[in-house]
């Protein structure tokens, strides 16, 4: 499960190391905060703009039994993307934080005077970071908003084919200058599935092969006058898809940009405002293996390797490895899901866990979900307890407590957005005394009649004490526009509540 309603972006579209020390602060042996904390929190939740809302929360020192502060801790709330804490936890638990995914290239047939008399096979290993996110120094480019949501202005900076070019160079170093056969993509790691993304209920193919998040980035700029067609810039430009441009420039847009496919023709329709900033529209490729085949063939051509595409019969069908790319560790791979809240990456992880840790290429999602349930049981929780998608603050805190006792905890925590510093919390109270000390997964979503917000994770105090928390808010709204106007203020309010807890414990 990812969420049961529309995500935040859908609402807008309608419009390791050991854990930190768990010892208590002096005077916190029973986890008491100052008596003014409840009043400070109520002053936040009682603001006029939150009239009619319902709040729930639990703040607890790690290892303690008595909470610092609770409010409706056993009531159920919609957590939205905060459930990604469970999905990431399962990946850490089943695969380990140091697990690396390997993408390899193999030949069948001999190489004779620079000509491969057979095929080249690109074997998918489940690496979700093939593309421009990995910088030269090994760090990740994690711009907010993520390009998969359709609210970004530009593609991720960098070369979307960089790892494929690295593989192609390795093939060339083996003396291959011509391939008499074809380029094939082996996706046997697991059987491809289909998942619905919350934004627009898009049906997404889930494959072991992912390049640039299996997205063709289409940057739309308005024309120079009303009535003029918009201009499109496509990256990576592979000739994989030809997009018919039916976007026009108007004074006040009334139609959202959208792709449609009919008789094999892909059209981008809609209206953009004169003088508006560029907008990136993600085109999700319907055939990840075919996309990778086209991309790798181009990378080979740029290395001077010609692929004829002929059908070749060879006596020697052994797979001989020519090239390999090794991914960053899992602790980095999960950051796109956690820090950026990428729904694209989220739907992949149950498949990867089931196929790799569970050894199940045929029904990987079911096996991945089973392994996640087993983790929840070990945390002392009932995996069937969430009713109609609703979770209690107590449930979240108990799971996060379990994760804080695991040997990989520090890397799990570091994968979360950091308040005031990065990810979906980058803009929340950057000048707060708690900024840089709050590691938490956010969740935002709703329907045309309701908004809900979540923040759950860890507050790290200066002496190493760890506070585990979960806070939720739900509020009826009259329109998506009202939700849009309110959701940012709720996020700030949740940051203010964490800050109040921090100040109550260190002052």
UniProtKB/TrEMBL annotation:
One of its GO terms (molecular function) is serine-type carboxypeptidase activity. PROSITE patterns: TAT. The keyword Signal applies. Residues 1-33 form the signal peptide. It comes from the Bacteria. Transmembrane segments: none annotated. Gene3D superfamilies: D-Ala-D-Ala carboxypeptidase C, peptidase S13, DD-peptidase/beta-lactamase superfamily. Keywords: Carboxypeptidase, Hydrolase, Protease, Signal. InterPro entries: Beta-lactam/transpept-like (IPR012338), Peptidase_S13 (IPR000667), TAT_signal (IPR006311). Pfam families: Peptidase_S13 (PF02113). The keyword Hydrolase applies. GO terms for biological process: peptidoglycan metabolic process; proteolysis. Belongs to the peptidase S13 family. This is D-alanyl-D-alanine carboxypeptidase/D-alanyl-D-alanine-endopeptidase.
